[in-house]
Amino acid sequence: MNVLVLASAALIPAAAIAAPQAAVPPSAQSAVAGGYTMDTPVEVIVADPRAKAILDTNFPGMTAHERFAELKTRSLNELRPILEQHFSAEQIAMAAAELARLTPAK
């Protein structure tokens, strides 16, 4: 079983992690209206229990990681360098496909 180690987030510049983030950028809001994408902020994804279950299944340990609060404003695409260190391209694509099939809760 793969366990996501967000300690690899050291690859993300400290300024990028510390930078203030909008709660949900307008581009992400429109993406969520049609389904979750790899550009949807993770915090929006995990707000939906069904979508959070997809992340927990495909990326074990991600949402429980001690640095999750720092990184949850980022999208899966922004976290892709970290994900690719721990999961195959097929696993990432599978999670993206499962998320895209969900109709976001309103």
Break the fold down into its secondary structure elements and pairings:
Layout: H1 14-18, H2 26-34, H3 42-46, H4 49-58, H5 68-71, H6 80-86, H7 89-101
- Main β sheet profile: none
Total number of helices? 7
Number of strands: 0
Anisotropy-based shape: globular
Mean pLDDT: 78
Helix content: 40-55%
What percent strand? under 5%
Listing every helix as H and every strand as E from the N terminus to the C terminus, the arrangement reads HHHHHHH
Radius of gyration: 13 Å
Flag low-confidence runs: 7-32
Helix and strand content put the structural class at mainly alpha
Spatial gap, N to C terminus: 33 Å
Signal peptide: 1-18
Keywords: Signal
What does this structure look like?
The chain has helices at about 15-20, 25-35, 40-45, 50-60, 70, 80-85, 90-100. With about 110 residues, it is mainly alpha-helical. The chain has a domain at about 30-100. The protein is globular. It starts with 13 loop residues before the first helix and ends in a 5-residue tail after the last helix.
